[in-house]
């Protein structure tokens, strides 16, 4: 790098994902994108806008409303030597393709005795907070993180949005990338030469010594905002971005808990049977004697997400709730 | 009355942490019962008792590090029933001068000094966070002395840290609190293990005049027998090639007993029992050599079971004190890593170490014919003070002989 001005530029999360797809298409002609509205309409979140003109209908393929069908076709293409990127418009609709993902993609390598792997990448939008009501606001990535045989990624930062796709395409096994739809408009600085990133490690996004917040995706930024507020009160919060939900990089968060002795998990999924529950259990197994307070979880209210803006906001984890919870956990000895 | 002392679990051990009592005053114990767990630099070891009797008093609370030889508990033995001795308290603390007569079944003296185990003195459970408990144990602070300021009166780390200075400020008769250096060493298991190994090996190289012998052994007969035996077994019961080697070592030591035993205080002390210490690499690094007791009396199945059991327990914790202290000779094998021959460093105060390399197909001349045979390089490192090369050679010769007659194994 020479200097900051020339090597950084401003772009959105959406543009970072688009760049990643474009780079993958240019690098490897086995890569193609398919999904509902990805072509002529430019993607329902405008992620693939312009790609049809650039790469043509052979490689940017519009599909009918048939998640099971086109996900299955993607799996077949992957088995046939292609490197498909399948876009499922949102995780809510992925349930129609769950059979393909869970019963086929995840187990093919095992069922074939190691003969056939499925190098497919499935991108899905997830999350609430955009007033799309109950059927369009689910955060089901934790369900997929339950399944052995697939990797589940959750890029929060621009760097990860830009870099995880190529790493995922290099993976011989199925990888699901969950993009929180609330992040697509997020703007930020990214290096001109940003490229592939690892998908194996969680990251400490902010260092602190009083409490660890373990989070991912959109909740990461709420946690970072909360940490900023808390730091003014003398509470130093460590914020961890899980990045990969399966397999979990537990060393990073266990090390953090060993340092801070308190853990709060912020997860947009529901609390019961959640990823937050899994992380909490792992802290009990791996760092029990480091705990100075019970592990806490801040998840979405256990209701179908409401349409009304104020109700939806009330149902999701928010900065003020995080601040409030941490204050109680630290209990004034900051 | 008998004294139960902190045992030495290896020549390199100077002190140990009494981690846990598995008995309480009034409990009846038999010889070989495991009554406590002690953590050394190498591992947590279950400590056995050597008398039949009744636990009278526990003198060292869990969490305390004490030197080898410290009296940990008093045991009323059958022989000493009724007899009362003024107690020699090597360890205890300011307010506990010998109190003369003790009455049967009396609970340990209630002192407000560090960490009398809550279970024996108070039935009330103290609410403290796991981290606070750990800190308190490390600093030898009695949680009952603390007032919790956490939610619902829970004692948290801050409450413990608040009293640390006071705890440190009672030096004269207070046993030394664990220093920062020691603490970090205890935490850093790998470093502690390295130090322990370093100490033993430095002593070995300084004190023991080693001599080394090496021989190559044709393993075809033994392996053939093992193979045909293993065919009759389920996969789980199959015997690894190292097992007949251990057995052959045990038998050969029977023929050359001078190599089986110790050199202590300028005196050679051969041992009758043949307890073979087997070097086991630990996953976190380092190694430990627990003993297969009475290896010469065990058949191959029993040896295999012992070995499997030892390896499992060495890696998960739960080795017993007798296994750690009673090895009379050590066997180490690096064959699985492809090493052809190894020249070991004797583990003091033992007087010999047998090393095995990899069994490799090699050209082998026999009766004027050249063939290919599975060949093992066996080495002996022995203490020249205890034996001479000639006895060592006889041992290797015997070892070879047993391995040529697998039916004797």
TrEMBL record, chain A:
Record-linked Pfam families: Transket_pyr, Transketolase_C
Molecular-function GO terms, alphabetical: oxidoreductase activity
InterPro entries per UniProt: THDP-binding (IPR029061), Transketo_C/PFOR_II (IPR009014), Transketolase-like_Pyr-bd (IPR005475), Transketolase_C (IPR033248)
Matches recorded under CDD domains: TPP_PYR_E1-PDHc-beta_like
Keyword Oxidoreductase: yes
Keywords: Oxidoreductase, Thiamine pyrophosphate
Co-factor(s): thiamine diphosphate
Domain Transketolase-like pyrimidine-binding: 11-186
Designated name of the protein: Transketolase central region
Upper classification of the organism: Bacteria, Pseudomonadati, Thermodesulfobacteriota, Desulfobacteria, Desulfobacterales
UniProtKB/TrEMBL annotation, chain B:
Cofactor(s) this protein requires: (R)-lipoate
Domain Lipoyl-binding: 1-76
A cellular component annotation (GO) from this entry: cytoplasm
Ranges of residues in domain Peripheral subunit-binding (PSBD): 127-164
E.C. number(s) listed in UniProt: 2.3.1.-
Keyword rRNA-binding: no
GO molecular function, one term: lipoic acid binding
Broadest EC class assigned to this enzyme: transferase
Domain of life: Bacteria
Keyword Ribonucleoprotein: no
Keywords per UniProt: Acyltransferase, Lipoyl, Transferase
PROSITE patterns documented for this protein: BIOTINYL_LIPOYL, LIPOYL, PSBD
Subunit annotation: Forms a 24-polypeptide structural core with octahedral symmetry.
Family recorded in the similarity comment: Belongs to the 2-oxoacid dehydrogenase family.
Name recorded for this polypeptide: Dihydrolipoamide acetyltransferase component of pyruvate dehydrogenase complex
Species, as recorded: Desulfococcus multivorans DSM 2059
């Amino acid at each position: 790098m020479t200097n900051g001005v020339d090597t950084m530029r401003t772009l959105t999360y959406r543009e970072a994902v688009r760049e990643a797809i474009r780079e993958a298409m240019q690098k490897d002609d086995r890569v193609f994108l398919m999904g509902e509205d990805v072509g002529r309409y430019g993607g329902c979140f405008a992620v693939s806008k312009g790609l049809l003109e650039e790469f043509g209908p052979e490689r940017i393929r519009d599909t009918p409303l048939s998640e099971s069908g086109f996900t299955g076709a993607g799996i077949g293409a992957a088995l046939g030597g292609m490197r498909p990127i399948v876009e499922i418009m949102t995780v809510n609709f992925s349930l129609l393709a769950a059979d393909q993902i869970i019963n086929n993609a995840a187990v093919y390598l095992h069922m074939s005795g190691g003969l056939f792997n499925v190098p497919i990448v499935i991108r899905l939008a997830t999350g609430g907070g955009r007033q799309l009501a109950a059927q369009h606001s689910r955060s089901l990535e934790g369900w997929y993180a339950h399944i052995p045989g697939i990797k589940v990624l959750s890029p929060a930062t621009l760097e990860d949005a830009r870099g995880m796709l190529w790493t995922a395409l290099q993976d011989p096994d199925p990888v699901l990338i969950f993009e929180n739809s609330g992040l697509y408009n997020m703007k930020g600085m990214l290096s001109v030469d940003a490229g592939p990133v690892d998908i194996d490690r969680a990251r400490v996004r902010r260092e602190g010594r009083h409490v660890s917040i373990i989070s991912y995706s959109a909740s990461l930024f709420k946690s970072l905002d909360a940490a900023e507020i808390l730091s003014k009160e003398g509470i130093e919060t460590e914020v961890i971005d899980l990045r990969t939900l399966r397999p979990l990089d537990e060393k990073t968060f266990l090390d953090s808990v060993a340092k801070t002795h308190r853990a709060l998990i912020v997860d947009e999924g529901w609390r019961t049977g959640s990823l937050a529950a899994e992380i909490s259990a792992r802290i009990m197994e791996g760092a029990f004697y480091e705990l100075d307070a019970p592990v806490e979880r801040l998840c979405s209210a256990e209701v179908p997400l409401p349409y009304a803006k104020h109700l939806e906001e009330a149902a999701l984890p928010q900065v003020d709730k995080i601040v409030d919870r941490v204050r109680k956990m630290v209990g004034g000895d900051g | 009355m008998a004294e139960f002392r902190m045992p030495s679990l290896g020549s390199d051990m100077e002190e140990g942490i009494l981690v846990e009592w598995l008995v309480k005053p009034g409990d009846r114990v038999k010889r070989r019962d495991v009554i406590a767990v002690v953590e050394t630099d190498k591992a947590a070891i279950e400590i056995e008792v050597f008398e039949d009797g009744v636990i009278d008093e526990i003198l060292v609370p869990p969490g305390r590090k004490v030197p080898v030889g410290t009296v940990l508990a008093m045991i009323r033995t059958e022989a000493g029933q009724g007899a009362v001795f003024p107690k020699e308290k090597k360890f205890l603390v300011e307010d506990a001068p010998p109190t003369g007569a003790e009455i049967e079944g009396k609970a340990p003296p209630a002192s407000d000094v560090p960490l009398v185990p809550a279970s024996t003195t108070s039935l009330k459970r103290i609410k403290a966070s796991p981290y606070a408990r750990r800190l308190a144990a490390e600093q030898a602070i009695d949680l009952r002395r603390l007032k919790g300021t956490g939610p619902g009166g829970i004692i948290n780390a801050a409450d413990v840290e608040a009293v640390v200075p006071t705890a440190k400020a009672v030096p004269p008769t207070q046993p030394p609190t664990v220093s920062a250096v020691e603490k970090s060493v205890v935490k850093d298991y790998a470093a502690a293990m390295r130090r322990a190994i370093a100490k033993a090996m430095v002593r070995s190289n300084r004190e023991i005049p080693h001599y080394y012998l090496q021989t190559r052994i044709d393993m075809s007969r033994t392996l053939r027998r093992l193979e045909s035996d293993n065919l009759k077994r389920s996969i789980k019961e199959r015997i690894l090639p190292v097992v007949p080697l251990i057995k052959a070592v045990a038998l050969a030591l029977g023929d050359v007993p001078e190599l089986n035993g110790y050199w202590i205080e300028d005196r050679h002390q051969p041992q009758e029992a043949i307890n073979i210490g087997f070097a086991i690499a630990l996953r976190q690094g380092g190694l430990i050599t627990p003993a297969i007791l009475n290896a010469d009396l065990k058949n191959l199945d029993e040896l295999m079971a012992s070995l499997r059991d030892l390896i499992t327990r060495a890696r998960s914790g739960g080795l017993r004190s007798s296994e750690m202290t009673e090895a009379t000779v050590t066997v180490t094998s690096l064959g699985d890593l492809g090493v052809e021959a190894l020249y070991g460093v004797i583990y003091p105060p033992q007087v010999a170490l047998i090393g095995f390399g990899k069994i490799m197909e090699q050209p082998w001349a026999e009766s004027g014919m050249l063939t290919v045979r599975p060949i093992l390089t066996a080495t002996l490192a022995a203490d020249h003070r205890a034996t001479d090369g000639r006895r060592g050679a006889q041992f290797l010769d015997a070892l070879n002989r047993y391995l040529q007659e697998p039916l004797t194994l």
